[in-house]
Design goal:
Phosphatidylethanolamine-binding Protein; globular; binds 2-acetamido-2-deoxy-beta-D-glucopyranose
Amino acid sequence: MMILQYYLLASIIFASNLAQGQSIAALDWIQDRILCPLFEICHQEPAHLTCTTSNCVALKFIEFGIVPDVLQKAPPEMLKVQYGSKEVQLGNNMTVAETTYMPTVLSWTTEPNMLYTLMFSDPDAPSDQDASARSARHWLVTNIPGIDIARGNTIRPYFGPGPPAGSGFHRYNFLVYKQNGRITATDATDGYNGPDKVRTCQLIDEAFPNDPMRAARLKDNLHWSPERFAAKNGLGELVAGNFFRAQFDGI
Ligand SMILES: *[C@@H]1O[C@H](CO)[C@@H](O)[C@H](O)[C@H]1NC(C)=O
């Protein structure tokens, strides 16, 4: 936030002292020569997908509150995620229909012979106003050799977003952790973070009064914490992440 405030201040000072054309050139100069090298803030906004430096990824994770709601620290790299031709871009809006089936492209920088864990979850469960069941686990694959997700162990198959009516915007986030070796997690509730399973089940039933099948599938997947799962299973560093937002759209 401080960085942005300084940048804003610098912009105002320059803009007020220079004519229009000059001021834009001056701002570009400040950004390119001072801000970019100093803070690794890239020229364009992440929304244009040019933001790949770690500070830009971190800014978006903080701006949207994934840090601290889900993570203590943002990942250093933007995970590449595509649903067909649509890219996930650090907080862009996607529809339920666009994200019903698993992404067609998912990649991150790998090291040779390493295994990775992929997580996809929603901290805004049951809603952005009442996140008392944070997080809902939507996909979990461990022991992925490189980026070959099909060869990993799927603990929880992909389950697309289904934000309930009136529950606001949900922040669906993808995280990839490097593993220190093969792990044996198989328990569907490993990473469970919740105090009260009975209450959780009630909340789910209330959220999906007309869809008992969806409610049943969700019950084992709430109160789930990516960081808790990582700690419990001795995972290594968080290497990449990305997220989009989705809200109920009548489907
Ligand atoms: C997402 O949709 C909301 C509500 O329509 C809008 O306010 C917001 O600007 C959109 N975000 C992006 C990145 O387009």
